[in-house]
Amino acid sequence: MKRHNAYLVLFLLVSSALLSAQDWIRTGTGLGVEKIRLAVPDFKNVTTDSGTQNLAMTFNLTLSNDLRNAGIFDMVSRSFFPLTVPGAPQEVHLADWSSPPPNAAMLAFGNLSIDAGYLNVQGWLYDTKNTQSPQVLGKQYRESATDENARVIAHRFADEIIFRLGGGIQGIAETKLYFVSKRGGSKEIWQMDYDGANQKQLTHLGSIALSPHVSPDGSRVAFSGVTKEGWQILMYSLELGRMVSFTRFGGDNFSPAWSADGQNLAFSSSRTGNTEIYAVSSSGGDLRRLTENRAPDVSPTWNPKTNSQIAWVSGRTGLPQIYTMASDGGNAVRVTDQGYAVSPSWSPNGQFLAFAWVRHYGPGAPGASDIYVMDIASKQWAQLTHDGGRNDFPSWSPDGRHIVFQSNRTGKTQIWTMLADGSEQRQLTTAGDNSQPNWSFK
Amino acid sequence: MKTNGGEELKRRSQWYKLTVALAVVLTVSACGKKKAAPPPPPPPPPAPAPTASLTASPNSIEPGQSTTLSWNTDYATDVSIDGIGKVDPSGSRTVTPTQSTTYHLVARNDTGTQEATARVTVNAAAPPPPPQQGNGTEAQMFAQNVQDVFFEYDSYDVSQQYQRVLQADAQFLQQHPNIRFTIEGHCDERGSTEYNLALGDNRANATKQALVSMGIPADRIRTISYGKEKPFCTESTEACWQQNRRAHFVYQP
Predict the structure, then answer these.
(1) How many C-beta neighbours within 10 Å does residue A229 have?
(2) Taking CA atoms, which of A100, A128, A196, B105 is between 20 and 30 Å from A117?
(3) Which residues of A12-49 are buried (b: 16+ CB within 10 A; e: fewer)?
(4) How many CB contacts within 8 angstroms connect chain A with chain B?
(5) Which chain A residue has its CA at the smallest distance from B208's CA?
(6) For residue B76, what pLDDT is reported?
(7) Average confidence (pLDDT) over A360-372
(8) Mind listing the domains of chain A with CATH numbers?
(9) What confidence score (pLDDT) does residue B35 get?
(10) Is 50 exceeded by the pLDDT of residue B121?
């Protein structure tokens, strides 16, 4: 109940922020639009053996989670559903869905069956208010009958619905997260689905691997790892399933970040002494130095909209602050005005920076590090996490509606996601110690 | 292994010296006996020639330790030990030689002179190993002599206090010009993983630059940051954090 009230307060604050310039701003796309009320009854099982039942359960759970996670739907509670639910267009009674209690604007339904080892799924999306031609979508899928494929088909159908109803922005149900996990002893690079499923270890360096960043085309993961030559930018090929070579530089090299066009990597290097930001082509050549300052400079992130700006962290005025500069190193501007601000991530639309901030830093001040989002043009910011603990390393989903981050609020550091307004915070990992999540570009 | 071998060697040499000393004593007393039993003594019998023995126990000591000289003479009217002077016909005395010494006793009377000797070995202090004697020793000396540098929170400036520490470090490093080493930059657990890596790099680099300015060639020094990845102390207390904010020296074999 308390939590409910908190969300209500948050909602009121968010709403008022739209009218007057307050601390709170809302972020993401499709804002100011009421959430679409969507009903998603379980898909009908045409073949009724136990194998199909298990796949059907996986499919239905994945589909409803994907649509709920999308953040653009008001999901109709199952308890409001009519007694019989449709599995095909001829079984649909629109009035049962468009009127209260379900009062759904949209209805997603369908059926699934198994034949000759293949899983067949038919799915539709209907506009319940449009009695003349209600069909918005009609899709058919056929994949070998595995649990994994049941998930994949559900992700694809969910992304179709989200794309159609969410302002033409691709859904994220098929995206991946890359992160650091210590569950095997040493810190290694891991991969998982956007919803925390299919967690899989990629690297086996046995030293320390940090800061994974997947390339925009999804072919390589750049990260920093301890080698005999100190920290180096290392590359793991997702296509080959193994490490591939990359240029090695002198000194320590940390925190690689891809430009959204895949042409360049920015990173921090101490090759000339203290750490500075450099850019290098994605093939490892054409090294350019972008900063020159005796303070620590680290954690670059490109403006993915233009690829012509970089935000990063510098200690040149004392405690670390977020700065932006042109991608040739010119025009450095300080963005945060106080505290301890680190780990910037630039939103896909180029408008926002998400970052970790201990705003009131100093003796006696609460030491919690929280995730904030700042509108770069106006410098207005919003605090997204309030639950204590150390929250760090935010990374935007490609649709700009979600942020993945790390938090130790439950004890150990784990990966969490939330909508970009701070709501719907969900924990994705539980095993061991997990950190530094990075959301794939697609 | 090396130490055991040395012990063994030392023990053997002790045995050897003891044997020699015993042999000397036996020889001396044998001689005495021979002379003490002359054929038919002419009257008036002259005083027999003196006999003398001298032992040191122990006969092998470490520097600063003492040993006891014991001697016995018969018929002597004048007994003296070199370096000590005139002594009683029989007696003992504690001596603390600083180096290996052969004590020389002379017993005299009107008839003749008898000498006895006892050797006391003072084991030499372990000689300072030459610089390239062995990595183990050199690494140990490095660890004993080169002190770490500690930093204030979020700082990579070497304070005056640690400038002095570095001067002592530099002195040792100048005396051992062949030692190469790594400076590891470390940070406490607070703050961000990536920022701490950069901060640790700056700490290692600031320490390196200070040593270079004191005359240590840069090519002997490698740096690496471990940020907050390898803490020395894992409690969330200021005392512990202080331990972790450091530039740590590591000998490079």
Answers:
(1) 14
(2) A196
(3) eebeebeeeeeebbbbbbbeeeeebbbbbbbbbbbbee
(4) 92
(5) A273
(6) 83
(7) 74
(8) 36-165 (3.40.50.10070), 176-439 (2.120.10.30)
(9) 47
(10) yes
d(CA A376, CA A374): 6
> Could you give the CA distance from residue A269 to residue A255 in angstroms, rounded to a whole number?
9
**Cβ–Cβ below 8 Å for B223 and A315:** no
Q: Is the pLDDT of residue A359 over 90?
A: no
On whether the CB atoms of residues A77 and A165 are closer than 8 A, the answer is no
How large is the angle between the packed helices B193-213 and B160-175, nearest 10 degrees? 60
Span A250-294, pLDDT tens digits: 999 999 999 999 999 999 999 998 899 999 999 999 999 999 999
Spatial contact of B28 and B74, defined as CB atoms under 8 Å apart? no
Which of A24-38, A147-161, A420-434 is the least confident region?
A24-38
- Which value, to the nearest 10 degrees, does the dihedral of the CA atoms of residues B105, B107, B113, B116 take? -30
Q: Does B205 touch chain A (CB under 8 A)?
A: yes
Report the 10 Å Cβ neighbour count for B139.
16
B195 touches chain A (CB under 8 A): yes
- CB A252 within 8 Å of CB A210: no
Retrieve residue A189's tokens. Answer: 């690079």
CA distance A441 to A217: 7
CA A128 from centre of chain: 31
Q: Could you give the angle at the alpha carbon of A259 between the alpha carbons of A428 and A438, nearest 5°?
A: 10
B65 has a chain A CB within 8 A of its CB: no
Question: A239 φ, ψ to 5°?
Answer: -75, -40
Q: What is the pLDDT of residues A198-256, one digit of tens each?
A: 999 999 999 999 999 999 999 999 999 999 999 999 999 999 999 999 999 999 999 99
pLDDT attached to residue A61: 96
**SS3 of chain B:** CHHHHHHHHHHHHHHHHHHHHHHHHHHHHHHHHHHHCCCCCCCCCCCCCCEEEEEEECCEECCCCCEEEEEEEECCCEEEECCCEECCCCEEEEECCCCCEEEEEEEECCCCEEEEEEEEEECCCCCCCCCCCCHHHHHHHHHHHCCCEECCCCCCCCCHHHHHHHHHHHHHHHHCCCCEEEEEEECCCCCCHHHHHHHHHHHHHHHHHHHHHCCCCHHHEEEEEEECCCCCCCCCCHHHHHHHCEEEEEEEC
Query: Per DSSP, what are the bridge partners of residue A354?
Result: A345, A373
C-beta neighbour count of B238 within 10 angstroms: 10
Q: For the whole model, what pTM was predicted?
A: 0.76
Cβ-defined contact of B201 to A295 (cutoff 8 Å): no
Q: Contact A252/B225, CB-based, under 8 Å?
A: yes
